[in-house]
Design brief:
30% strand, alpha+beta, 13 helices, 9-stranded parallel sheet, 10-stranded antiparallel sheet, globular
Length: 728
């Protein structure tokens, strides 16, 4: 619900549990007055204090009023160069050579429904949304800035986007354009970021705000394995079930920055958007620039409700899922089974083993195209390698379907090997700086996806491949960061646009793929989880969570990922033991239990499994299918923190009506003398009575949540337990 108080020029945005408010104050400065638990729509600007702060300058409109300073006021969209020295949201490089920005309130517009962003991912929906557009202008620079707000009341979700318009008669350059700014008149907050590296992504890191600026960013051309474009600000005592917290995500798959600043006067500011490093965007008169969307959830009751709000909003209003209303298939991927060493016969051997076990989709990974016999050649040449697959995909896919398996393929469209026909014909299509030998990673270069002709060539190769056979699934990979970023298609003064135009090019091609092949399930991948963000989820309903398939490491990876992203988005597979990344030996039942809290599949040579292992796999696929809706669409509860090194890790999936629950427990290393362990559940109906799988009697939800469930002792490391609960 959006309410505008015309007399006081106050905008109040209500969601089910929270309120967000801003005010066009004195001298038309747009002030941020409140974001927190829901309150009445009163003018909360009385909370803003004014004082003469000496070295904090005053705008000319303030005259002799030394108490009015942009340096001390909570602002809705911060500027630079005219008195506010804190983190800025926007910066213009004007024809005069100045780099200031001074924005003042100029009007508003209210709309039913949800705004859309051309060429960019954004949450979508109908009349359950409302849109507010607030107009700001810099009269001297002749620039208009439009602030977009989308309100999804039921899920406590507020989205934000920014559009900058050059209203002048000369070109200007945009040097900075953030999507989100949050000002707080308090300092007692913690910042939580989700960090890591390749094969250990999105590990939570929590620290109190300190004087100055702290935060995370990416300059790798992707959102990166190292820092995720999702952060949390929270009160010091906030945990899963208690305390005030604010989650903020950026729907963007390129260079980003999330920075928090504690000011000299103990106020806090969070700014999130495109990383200003090596960013500029030239706007001719009349042209506009649209910044990526950001989304916010405020939870007055801890991290758990915040996560569940994001999960449901992402599933229902961000992901375009071709399987909507249907169950996604359980798949087998051949990568860790064969790597590059395969032919049609070997793939069919794995498939013949997989089909009777309840597996429904076969995914052929890297190595099927061009001269691709290893990772040194072939990228960019998207035609079938007839030596490996003599009949092509038009022969292999029907053979898979005869076995009862759908068929999918791996692609890496953004990359090129120098040993490829594409590179030999178009060496200028790779990102390279003139007169400099480019850096290589995995012996590959990055194609300049900012150029339409490059995208057209690659798509022109892929389209006939995807049309040649009944292909049900595409895994879109991207296995290196961007370096040597320079485009032969742009003049020197516009090279700062390449990173952003590259991301727009990826989105354009993904959107085209989705439109031309609407029934194909696309999984995103970037060396595993290097581009796990809301931007990609708009186009790819699931993302390979990490190249690390070790089930015990995955407990931490999937835990951190769950703070924002739903289980249905996390690509997770059962792989071989000992694990190929860690060498760890983990029971097959445990590997399956962990992978079930994801999209679920297998990545191993099933033809080498024992009869006992095949029976376990058959049980796992049947169990996952039976409880698919509960796992993929239920509410997710983190019951323990795997980073605290406790005796076990546990989580639960609870149906929206609270009639069913699936609880998973994974034990750590066993000890000779074990403690008695009790697990307290969450999310149940306290007044309902639940039967627990394998037990004859029932227990009330209040007992299971407060007194708990006694966990059995176990023998052997990394054992697991799955409990299914159903209300009587």
């Amino acid at each position: 619900m959006i309410i505008f108080d015309k007399e006081n020029r106050v905008f109040t945005l209500h969601t089910r549990s929270t309120t967000y408010q801003m005010k066009a104050g004195r001298h038309n400065v747009l002030l941020h007055t409140y974001y927190g638990p829901r309150v009445t729509e009163e003018d909360l600007s009385y909370l803003i204090r004014y004082a003469d702060r000496g070295c904090s300058p005053n705008p000319p409109e303030a005259g002799d009023d030394r108490c009015f300073s942009l340096d001390t006021l909570p602002q809705e969209y911060s500027t630079c160069g005219v008195g506010d020295f804190r983190l800025p949201c926007v910066e213009f490089a004007l024809p005069s050579g100045s780099s200031s920005a001074d924005l003042r309130y100029a009007g508003y517009e209210l709309r039913p429904g949800k705004y859309a962003l051309e060429g960019l991912p954004a949450f979508f929906g109908g009349q359950e949304w409302e849109t507010l557009v607030v107009l700001l202008e810099d009269a001297a620079a002749r620039v208009r800035v439009e602030l977009y707000y989308g309100v999804l009341e039921e899920q406590d979700l507020i989205t934000r986007a920014v559009r900058v318009v050059n209203q002048g008669d000369q070109p200007l350059s945009l040097r900075r354009c953030a999507s989100l700014c949050l000002d707080f008149q308090r300092s007692d907050l913690d910042l939580i970021t989700f960090d890591g590296c390749h094969m250990m992504e999105r590990c939570p890191a929590r620290a109190p705000l300190r004087p100055g600026v702290q935060g995370v960013d990416s300059a790798r051309g992707t959102s990166s394995h190292h820092h995720n474009p999702f952060v949390i600000l929270c009160e010091r005592e906030t945990n899963e079930d208690y305390g005030l917290c604010y989650g903020a995500m950026l729907l963007y798959s390129g260079n980003f920055q999330a920075a928090a600043e504690l000011s000299q006067y103990d106020s806090a500011r969070l700014v999130m958007g495109i990383n200003p490093w090596h960013f500029s965007f030239r706007l001719a008169p009349g042209e506009c620039f649209t910044a990526p969307e950001a989304a916010m959830v405020c939870s007055p009751a801890g991290f758990g409700p915040m996560s569940r709000r994001f999960h449901r909003s992402i599933r229902e209003h961000l992901i375009h899922d071709p399987m909507a209303g249907r169950r996604r298939p359980v798949l087998i991927n051949n990568w860790e089974a064969t790597y590059f060493d395969f032919d049609a016969g070997k793939l069919l051997e794995i498939a013949r083993t997989a089909a009777p076990l309840g597996i429904e989709l076969f995914v052929m990974d890297d190595g099927w195209f061009g001269g691709r016999c290893d990772d040194n050649r072939g990228l960019g040449d998207w035609w079938v390698n007839r030596e490996k697959l003599p009949g092509g995909l038009e022969a292999l896919a029907p053979q898979m379907e005869e076995l009862g398996l759908g068929f999918g393929i791996w692609i890496e469209p953004e990359m090129v090997n120098e040993d490829s026909r594409l590179y030999r014909e178009h060496p200028d299509w790779a990102l390279k700086i003139p007169r400099r030998d480019p850096a290589r990673c995995r012996n590959q270069l990055v194609l300049d996806f900012s150029r339409p002709e490059v995208r057209e060539n690659v798509y022109g190769q892929l389209y006939p491949v995807l049309s040649s056979a009944p292909i049900r699934y595409v895994k879109w990979d991207m296995n290196r960061s961007l370096t040597d970023v320079w485009s032969a298609a742009l003049p020197p003064e516009r090279q700062g646009e390449v990173y952003h135009r590259y991301v727009l090019g990826v989105y354009e091609m993904l959107d085209r793929l989705r439109r031309d092949f609407p029934d194909v399930l696309i999984e995103g991948c970037c060396g595993g989880g290097g581009r796990f963000d809301g931007g990609m989820l708009y186009y790819t309903p699931q993302i390979w969570c990490s190249d690390n398939t070790d089930a015990i490491d995955r407990l931490r990876i999937q835990y951190g990922t769950s703070f924002c992203y739903p289980v249905s988005a996390m690509g997770a597979h059962v792989s071989v033991s000992p694990n190929e990344q860690t060498g760890r030996v983990t029971p097959l039942r445990t590997r399956g239990a962990v992978a079930m809290s994801g999209t679920f599949g297998y990545e191993m040579d099933l033809s080498k499994t024992t009869p006992e292992e095949r029976e376990i796999i058959r049980e796992q696929t049947a169990f996952f299918k039976e409880h698919y809706d509960l796992i993929q669409k239920g509410d997710y509860y983190r019951l323990t923190d795997p980073f605290r090194e406790g005796p076990y890790t546990a989580w639960a999936h609870v149906s929206p009506d609270r009639r069913q629950a699936l609880v998973t427990v994974v034990y750590g290393s066993v000890r000779a003398v074990q403690s008695f362990l009790t697990l307290r559940l969450k999310g149940l109906d306290p007044d309902a009575r639940y039967r627990v799988s394998g037990e004859e009697r029932s227990w009330s939800g209040s007992v299971l949540m407060n007194a708990g469930w006694p966990l059995p002792m176990t023998r052997g490391d990394y054992q697991s337990l799955q409990l299914y609960l159903e209300a009587e």
